[in-house]
Specification:
Layout lengths: L2 H30 L2 E2 L3 E2 H9 L8 H21 L4 H8 L5 H18 L12 E5 L24 H11 L9 E5 L9 H11 L2 E6 L6 H10 L3 E5 L5 H8 L4 H14 L4 E6 L8 H11 L2 E5 L6 H4 L7 H29 L9 E3 L3 H12 L20 H4 L8 E4 L4 E3 L13 E2 L5 H7 L1 H7 L7 E3 L2 E3 L14 H7 L15 H18 L1
Parallel strand pairs: 3-4, 3-10, 4-5, 5-6, 6-7, 7-8, 8-9
Antiparallel strand pairs: 1-2, 10-11, 11-12, 13-14
Helix pairs in contact: 1-3, 1-5, 2-3, 6-7, 8-10, 13-14
The structure holds iron/sulfur cluster (SF4) (2 copies).
The site of one iron/sulfur cluster has 13 residues, from helix 18.
Amino acid sequence: MGIGRRFMQIKSLENALLSTVNPLLKLLIEKFDLECDQDGSLLVNSLKHFLGEEVKFCNSCSHLNHMMANPFYRIGSRLLRADTGFMRNMFLGQEYSDAWLKGFALMMRGIRKYGIRIPFTPAGPFEIVWNFTYSCNLRCKHCYENAGGHRPELTTDQACAAIDVLSRIANFGLPALSFSGGEPLIRRDFYEVAAYAKRKIPYISIATNGTLITRDVAKKLKEIGVDYVEISLDGATQKVHEDFRRVPGCFEKTIEGIKSCVEEGLDTCIAATAHKENLSETSKILDLAERLGARFMHFNYVPTGRAKKHIHLDPTPKERLSLMETMGQKLVDRYIEAKEEEMKTGKTNISLDRIFSTCPQFARVVKRLSREKGENYTVPTHYAAKKGVEAAANFIGGCGAGRLYVGLEPNGDIKPCVFFPTNEQTKLGNILEDSFDHIWDTNDLLWELRTREKLEKYKVNGHIVGCGNCKDKYICGGCRARSYSYFNGDLHGADIGCILNEELWKEIVGQRISEIASSH
Ligand code: SF4
Ligand code: SF4
């Protein structure tokens, strides 16, 4: 029997199993997904109790915990072979426990509402990226927001009202909010709004070009409680970076911005968009990040906004794969080193969250590279790798657009991911005018994005290709924003940047690149 056929059979079995298990699970979770006037969320409190925290329950909660929640967590963690040590570390007593607990609660409420799905859909996003302003002091070729010019944005009061809405998503609230742009630091009220956000949302980050970050600015970011700073750098040399960012002198300022953040003790990450003109520099940027004490995030080229005009910069599938392998190899080597150290000494300080990527195929490449070394390790897309998460890769599931996160526009419009263009089809509603929870539960476009079985297959030169034909679609799914761009608004098309879809790339890219760029 062919691998493809066997895989389909396993999937059908899984689906049959889920259709039996899901109604039961929904019923069970419903019994303890309750808000107690005295104790707060029983769902969260019972998890803390299960993991060893001393929790005071009222009589009614104590009874439900004993009869329902505790057996549920005990049996569930055994069946899923969950790493309870990892859970204890993440959910109890560390700086970001609150964000992890909110994420967990959203996941459980998601199972209660929609059942277990592969990949899963929580009851609200784990993260929202907010393009806080259209203004920018650079003119980058790849800007997905097409920043610059004046368009209506939320006022300070409206921005705070939007944060109030986010802090109530699905009653649990949003775990993580990222301010992006344009250049978020250009808005004079950035500190006021970000400080307000930090009081309501446990994890706050900023994605910036870094040019406005002096030592004083870094201090201020630290003071208001920004947890993570992501600074874009697209070249290890001035020429490559500035050719792309198109403002002379910005390289030096960005490097200074990175240094200031690191010196201030902020969790700092260099974000590099890989494109044809900087591919030869990406290893050097990786080294630079290491030298400067910053993490490294690869941003996948997505032809949206101004990037569509420069679509010829999109790396070929082979070029993208080679980059993924360079990063993936470093990560797998770190994983093995950490594992060996742990076996010898019982602990390790080698962290795996130094390199990550927005390219969903990264999960597949890391999985393959780790198998080649006899390991069973992979990474979730967009998020820093954590040891202990790999077993849930199918469940976490690659592209998170409209599932694990959404994008917010400066005027409060909601869309599935910031890399989608903003138009009537992709606008899901407005954060101040529409009910977020209702959109999340019912919007058709969101459910289209959440259903991997709808991904398309294509016959090219006698071969079947496309994300719909891929056995890794549950850990990857292809970048839906890239499909949207290359296939004129098709949410289920192939991600032609993937090596498995190379035939499709060859077939369409020549004609499409000139067509798309000229139509822009
Ligand atoms: S074919 Fe699609 S789903 Fe499969 S690995 Fe490539 S991009 Fe991901
Ligand atoms: S569409 Fe998916 S893979 Fe692409 S950038 Fe958005 S979340 Fe990431």
